[in-house]
Design goal:
single chain; 4 helices; 90% helix
């Protein structure tokens, strides 16, 4: 029973750092850095990351750049598909 409580406690403690690390990785930041910050400063690191992501999303130039990267990746994938069909 004690082992079950320890495992459940470790899971509960590591939930926020994993969430913070995943969020950071999704936006091109270091997973391990934010995971460690999530363990050291659980709530604070989450709000700092949220503020950084919000600042990036509210920046009009950054949004346009992200959209351009997405369009370019889609165009390259479509071009590869056409080239594969033509046998090149």
């Amino acid at each position: 029973m004690f082992v079950d409580l320890v495992i459940a406690g470790l899971f509960a403690i590591s939930l926020l750092p994993f969430t913070t690390g995943y969020c950071a990785y999704s936006y091109g930041r270091s997973f391990w850095l934010w995971f460690a910050l999530g363990f050291l400063l659980p709530i604070v690191s989450y709000f700092i990351l949220f503020a950084l992501i919000l600042r990036q999303q509210l920046d009009h130039g950054q949004r346009l750049l992200n959209e351009a990267k997405t369009l370019l990746a889609e165009a390259e994938a479509a071009e590869r598909a056409v080239n594969e069909r033509l046998g090149e």
